[in-house]
Inverse folding.
């Protein structure tokens, strides 16, 4: 009698970071890849050392790099216990390098936003052109 082959679980995807973003280049209608972005905690206990990342080929940042291997999830977990989990964060997008300094009005775009550590995931899209931008809280 043949024994059934055990079913192995598919490898789990890494946990989603509490803050993610993406950039859409409005001049091309395509994702903006290879844009350097920094994420900094401003309040409480800030400003922190920034976490950094570069947008992927689909214009997204789903994982941040911190000093000494620290992760955004660890920061969130630690801060959720302080100041009622209320935070202010800053995203800085290096738009001058993306478009070229002579080709844009904005050397960088900074978006500051409130976060409640108990309110789940925050996604911040940036719709970017050389002379304008807009952003909102995505899902």
């Amino acid at each position: 009698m043949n024994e059934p082959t055990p079913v192995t679980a598919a490898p789990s995807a890494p946990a989603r970071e509490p803050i993610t973003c993406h950039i859409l280049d409005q001049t091309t209608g395509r994702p903006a890849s290879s844009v350097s972005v920094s994420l900094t905690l401003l309040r409480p206990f800030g400003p922190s050392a920034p976490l950094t990342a570069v947008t992927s080929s689909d214009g997204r940042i789903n994982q941040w790099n911190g000093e000494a291997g620290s992760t955004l999830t660890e920061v969130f977990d630690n801060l959720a216990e302080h100041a009622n989990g209320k935070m202010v964060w800053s995203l800085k997008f290096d738009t001058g390098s993306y478009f070229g300094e002579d080709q844009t009005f904005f050397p960088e775009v900074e978006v500051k936003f409130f976060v409640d550590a108990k309110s789940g995931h925050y996604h911040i899209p940036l719709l970017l052109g050389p002379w304008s931008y807009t952003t909102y809280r995505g899902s």
User: Anything to note?
Assistant: The chain has a mean pLDDT of 87.
